What we know:
The protein is of the alpha/beta class. The protein is built from five helices and ten strands.
Amino acid sequence: xxxxxxxxxxxxxxxxxxxxxxxxxxxxxxxxxxxxxxxxxxxxxxxxxxxxxxxxxxxxxxxxxxxxxxxxxxxxxxxxxxxxxxxxxxxxxxxxxxxxxxxxxxxxxxxxxxxxxxxxxxxxxxxxxxxxxxxxxxxxxxxxxxxxxxxxxxxxxxxxxxxxxxxxxxxxxxxxxxxxxxxxxxxxxx
Length: 190
């Protein structure tokens, strides 16, 4: 079977309150995080890449910018907006604040996907925490996501649990060599 084509989105619309400045513009190895994440998704094979950003983030302009489907909806708003625009059956989602992410993460998840079924990693001492901000979502999850928004329920953990129950997501455990890729930047280094 040929590899699945997929769309992708860099989630960069957060307010970066704890950081004190827009995380998307922070640099890692001399490159702004939003540009770095865009490059990672391109290396992973994304056919199109969106940037989820707020109106006031003037650095994010153009036809590939998506605005959250609802104000105050957190990452779910960016997920819904990108799924609605995606030209392909799967959407790779990558948070802007995971500077050590590598393309091989998404290639590994893509290998777990099939038509109508995405992939996500679960970790924690009891394997009870999904990694929703570095996952591969199928277009078929859009109905569940819209219903969650309509209920005012913005938890990606709950969305992924429901998607797993409906067999829309394959779930695998976090491998030992992958944990470094999930280190995020939420606060300034002191």
